[in-house]
Design goal:
CATH architecture of the largest domain: 3-Layer(aba) Sandwich
Structural class: alpha+beta
Number of strands: 20
Helix content: 25-40%
Number of helices: 16
Bound molecules: dihydroflavine-adenine dinucleotide
Length: 540
């Protein structure tokens, strides 16, 4: 049996902890011609440009790539990777890319599930005819915390781990609701919503953004006041690489108690996992909003059967939590020994898979895959009614078939029921019991391994059809999935072939996002396979 406290050595930690090293600002390299001249003309600064013939190009391009699926010789590569340090340099990159007809891929933490921050899904041949550059914001990683006003300005290139650590340096009773894995980049994460273990109490990261600085398609730097409320609404969940380059975000911090409690309790099918998960479905949304109990279900291997790991954060002391569990969820069989009291920052480390006693500075590290291949495919779903016992049994059958399959069920309710569907572009609020994240990972290269693992994921997704949201079948943009449809890969037009991926991510907010896009970027300068199209790019 796996030690429950190391459950994050699953998907999250496979990536987050495969090894970590201090993030280092990328060194300047003096290189290219036309683009370089253009950048100097627009910003007066010497911006670091890496071209494929430069010795550092590969390392600069690859350092944050988490998914080996997008790191092969067939993967379309950018013509340039650019790592600006100052706002005018970013402005210059946008103006020069427009002048030289280069597409821009914005990268903050590089965690995009489909690699869209550094490559394209178009075939290499097509991609080579539509050159793109990677605008890497790693140097925009400043975090300035104001404990009196309970706010912070955080650069898009910072990781959520850096944000958590900088807050904890200054206060034991302030925190921020964002993702579980410390290496996620703030830029992409906030652009798609961003949630973690405080979702039920505090909602999404995007719900706490109160200002932002953005470079628009005209190369102007805008803040909340100058961009206006429509664009400010759109960038808080409407997906990255669509409305502009978000340089930094001002966020409202949240109060956290001095003592919080975590637990990870493993149950197998022989230990009544099916019935316990079944019960969890109907109580998890009704528990006090300080309590978040997610389930991580992992595939069977030669040592372990299928496991359902009940992994939790409670914003309060263990004795109170025990009473809640004994009253509302006795089936879980939690005892006082299962519950660990700690500070909020320690809970961040525990849930992320670090061993007890790890110094919070570890959150400043990022991940490198150390040359070990790690291929993965993710998908998502929303469940509105409890799945019957037989339905859950069928899920275990899939997990018996493949040891590297993983499902994460994240409960909703709490404050998520109280925030309107249109408050931000993220529409998945009241009426959802939980979100499912599907993750399949593998390490073997080659077509056969690729096809069998992708096929398992798609078959399981198909199996879930009767049990999840319908018309549209909803999905979470931060778990990007190109299976649900893409823009036209050459000119980014959106048509019936797109299979309405937009309404799956954004439901009724999609139309408003299209209106904002049409106003701020009518020529579709910022675009990728799933960026919001302006009206003129929607064809019937
Ligand atoms: P990346 O840099 O790849 O960007 C993602 C997208 O946003 C791309 O389209 C990119 O062009 C665009 N973009 C990036 N920076 C931008 C900027 N400054 N301005 C405009 N556009 C920008 N999610 C979650 O909600 N909770 C969680 O707990 C986790 N956990 C998790 C663990 C692991 C291991 C992975 C790989 C992913 C997650 N995620 C997650 C999903 C994560 O939130 C999602 O992949 C984010 O988009 C990642 O943001 P990055 O900046 O790292 O990605």
């Amino acid at each position: 049996m796996k030690n429950p406290n190391t459950i994050c050595v699953l998907f999250v930690s496979l990536l987050c902890l495969s090894s970590y090293s201090n993030r280092q600002a990328l060194a300047y390299n003096d290189d290219d011609d036309g683009l370089k001249q253009c950048l100097i003309r627009h910003s007066q600064n010497h911006t670091a440009i890496y071209t494929p013939d430069h010795s550092s190009f590969v390392s600069v391009l690859q350092y944050p790539i988490k998914n080996t699926r997008f790191n092969s010789s067939d993967t379309p590569k950018p013509f340039y990777v650019i790592t600006p340090r100052e706002e005018p340099e970013v402005q210059a990159v946008i103006l020069c890319a427009a002048e030289l007809n280069l597409q821009v891929r914005i990268r903050s933490g590089g965690h995009d599930y489909e690699g869209l921050s550094y490559t394209t899904a178009a075939e290499k041949r097509v991609a080579d005819q539509n050159p793109f550059l990677v605008l890497d914001l790693i140097n925009f990683n400043n975090v300035a915390v104001d404990t009196v006003k309970k706010t912070a300005w955080v650069g898009s290139g910072a990781t959520v781990g850096e944000l958590y650590y900088r807050i904890s340096e200054k206060s034991k009773t302030l925190g921020f609701p964002a993702g579980v894995c410390h290496s996620i980049g703030v830029g992409g994460h906030f652009s798609g919503g961003g949630y973690g273990m405080m979702l039920r109490k505090h909602g999404l990261s995007a719900d706490h953004v109160v200002d932002a600085r953005l470079v628009d398609a005209k190369g102007r730097v805008l803040d909340r006041k100058s961009m206006g409320e429509d664009l400010f609404w759109a960038i808080r969940g409407g997906g990255g690489n669509t409305f502009g380059v978000v340089l930094s975000w001002k966020v409202k911090l949240v109060d956290v108690p001095e003592t919080v409690t975590t637990f990870s309790i493993v149950r197998t099918p022989d230990q009544n996992a099916t019935k316990i998960v079944h019960k969890w479905q109907s109580i998890a949304t009704k528990l006090p909003q300080e309590l978040f109990i997610r389930i991580i279900a992992i595939g069977q291997n030669s040592q372990n059967p299928v496991q359902a790991i009940f992994n939790s954060l409670y914003l309060g002391p263990a004795d109170t939590l025990l009473k809640i569990l004994q009253h509302s969820f006795p089936e879980l069989g939690a005892t006082r020994k299962d519950l660990e009291e700690k500070t909020w920052i320690e809970s961040i480390l525990t849930i992320d898979g670090f061993p007890n006693g790890t110094h919070p500075k570890a959150l400043l590290g990022t991940i490198v895959n150390n040359g070990k291949p790690y291929y993965f495919k993710g998908k998502s779903d929303f469940v509105k009614n409890p799945i019957p016992l037989e339905g859950l049994e069928g899920v275990w059958d899939f997990l018996k078939e493949n040891s590297s399959g993983l499902l994460i069920f994240s409960p909703y309710g709490g404050i998520m029921d109280k925030i309107s569907e249109s408050a931000t572009p993220f529409p998945h609020r009241a009426g959802n019991l939980y979100k499912i994240q599907y993750v399949m990972s593998w390490s073997k290269a080659g077509k056969e391994a690729y096809e069998s693992h992708m096929s398992w994921t798609r078959r399981l997704f198909q199996y879930y059809t009767p049990f999840v949201s319908k018309n549209p079948r909803q999905a979470y943009v931060n778990y990007r999935d190109l299976d649900i449809g893409t823009n036209n890969l050459v000119n980014s037009t959106y048509d019936r072939q797109s299979k309405n991926w937009g309404v799956k991510y954004y439901q009724n907010n999609f139309e408003r996002l299209v209106r904002v896009k049409t106003k701020v970027d009518p020529h579709n300068f910022f675009r990728n396979e799933q960026s919001i199209p302006p009206l003129s790019y929607i064809v019937n």
